[in-house]
Every structure is written in structure tokens, then in C-alpha cells.
Amino acid sequence: MQHNQSKRYASGFSLIELVTTILIVGILAVFVIPKLIPESSYSAYTLRNEFISELRQVQIKALNNSDRCYRITVDSDGYQLTTYSHNINAPFAGCVPAQLLRTDLKQTFNGGAYIELASNSSTSFSMDFDNLGRSTLACTGSCFVVVADESLTIAMESEGYIHGL
User: Which UniProt keywords are given for this protein, alphabetically ordered (predicted)?
Assistant: First the structure.
């Protein structure tokens, strides 16, 4: 009779074995698996929302400060905001930079991500906003393509509204 009881207990896992296995799987999940995922998994949604937010912020600054020009310069590494005094003697009503006032820190792209113009696929461009919130790119509809783990589009309407597609 004792022989049958010992066979029944030997057929399963002990509590210590189960806890040890769960611990090892947990450590692998936290430390090893993220290193196997490539860095190019930078979210296109994150970059798109970040860039839309930056464009809207610059647009609002241009609307509220007619004595300043705000320029966003984009290249393959990131984008940067520069503030200039506005040349009020310029022959047209747009933003005409006169004197450099401030340059913000460059926001860099991660994991091979970049932003390009939808019209010509250029990854290096600059744009200003006038005091009516319009861009100097003269772009309507799909203006920018954000490329990271996938491609997403940013649109600007003729009246200045900036949104993702």
C-alpha cells in the first residue's frame, strides 16, 4: 500500500520547481526578450504625434507674436525650432527672419526614424509660420510622411489646421 502512494506523489512537480521555473521565465521576459527586438521598432505613432504637437505649438507662438518668426528645420537626424525677430520692413506680409533670437535643443530621431516631405521625399527642409498660422511650405493635404516602424502621414489644411491621417 505504501508503494502506490509514493508513485502518486512522484508524478507531479513540487512547489519549488514551479516557482523556480516561473522566476526564470520572468527574468527572460524582462531582460533577454527586449534585447532580441530590433531598435527600429520606434513607434511611428509616437513620432507623428510628437511632431504634430511641435508644429501646433510653433503655429500658436506665431499667431500670438507678430514680432517674431518661428522656423522648424528638419533633417535626417531630427528637428529643431529657431526663433528670429521679424523684419517689419519686408515687402510682403509673411514671416521674414531678421535677427536670431533663440535656438532650441534639437529633437533627435531614434531607431532609424525620419520625417520627409510628401511632395518630393526630401528629409531636409525648413518651414516658417506667419502671424495667421499658415506655413511657408504652401502645402495642402498630405504634407509630411513619418517613417519608423511604419509610414504615417501628417496633413496641413489651407487654413492652417494640422492633423494626422
Answer: Membrane, Transmembrane, Transmembrane helix
